[in-house]
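User: Working on a comparison across species. This one is Iron-sulfur cluster carrier protein from Sagittula marina. Can you predict its structure so I can line it up against the others?
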Amino acid sequence: MATREDVLDILKTIDAPQGGDIVAAGVVRALGVADSGVRFVLEVPPGQTEAWEPIKAKAEAALAKAGVGTVNIALTADAPPPGLGAKKEKPKPQGPQKVPGVDHIIAIASGKGGVGKSTVSANLACALAAMGRRVGLLDADVYGPSQPRMLGVSGRPASPDGKTILPLRNHGVTMMSMGLMTNEGQAVAWRGPMLMGALQQMLMQVQWGALDVLIIDLPPGTGDVQMTLAQKTEVDGSIVVSTPQDVALLDARKGIDMFRQMNVPLLGMIENMSTHICTNCGHEEHLFGHGGVAAEAAKLGVPLLAEIPLDLQIRLASDGGAPIVVSQPDSPQAQAFMKVAQALVDQGVA
Ligand SMILES: Nc1ncnc2c1ncn2[C@@H]1O[C@H](COP(=O)(O)OP(=O)(O)OP(=O)(O)O)[C@@H](O)[C@H]1O
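Assistant: Here's the predicted structure for Iron-sulfur cluster carrier protein from Sagittula marina:
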């Protein structure tokens, strides 16, 4: 009598349409080998039974020639019933998830610290809120959380049921920050896994409510927070903020590469502190050089969304808890942020 291995060896001589043999193709199921003969199921992809008829005939002929007894092959495009060797469906790999109730997520990133990423995030969030969008702002910068100060909120968020966290709200923006979970000024020594857990907790456990867009103010650089965000959460796009200096741009490029690798679209770049206008005489100076970010954006084929001047009013407004978009909405500086917000709405990502 032929053994199971003998039968498989014979079947391995028969080619599958997509290349390789039919055993390697994984279509031979429920193989039964007995004294009386051989029976099995050829389970082929849906709609392909016709293409597999000649292959079934070849298998029948080869087995008959080998003298294995009666040959009974059932050709089907349906999975055989359980117990007949049906392959269990593997659970689908978990890709990036949507945050419930949140339509869009935009990550604001920078390669280097101190380039104004939080200032841009706060102003963009307030600008979108002023345009009537339902906006959330998540300050994921655990090393230097600044949104509570910029949006003028303080106090600890409540958690009435011990599971969900109630966010805070000011200037029409729903806001949550790691800075609100720690004492002000306290050095936070977060390790990678803690960061990832904290970010997921902020995204999933904070009661954001229904939002058109959630802005995420990322920590500078390309660390655990950025990676976890891109892997676990569906992000509509990123905006990279940079000052015009070469060093800042060099780091910004690293951030851009990371988002590219993680399939997060780059919505555009913002040059911050691009020019300085003297408060006394109105003279314009390019303290950090000018146009570096525009050149980089052109090279990458992404829009330069704005060139924000280095301006005392921007800093005073942020430090005072009412970003310039709120405190001086008609100023040219505020208008620069409003333009970016409008562009995001026009693009359908906010
Ligand atoms: N265009 C600007 N004009 C004047 N001051 C600015 C401007 N942009 C940012 N600043 C000021 O620079 C400082 C750093 O800005 P901000 O906190 O936004 O940077 P950041 O990139 O988020 O920094 P980090 O994430 O490293 O803490 C703040 O005091 C802010 O008010």
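For your comparison, note: The two ends are 70 Å apart (CA to CA).

User: Helpful, thanks.
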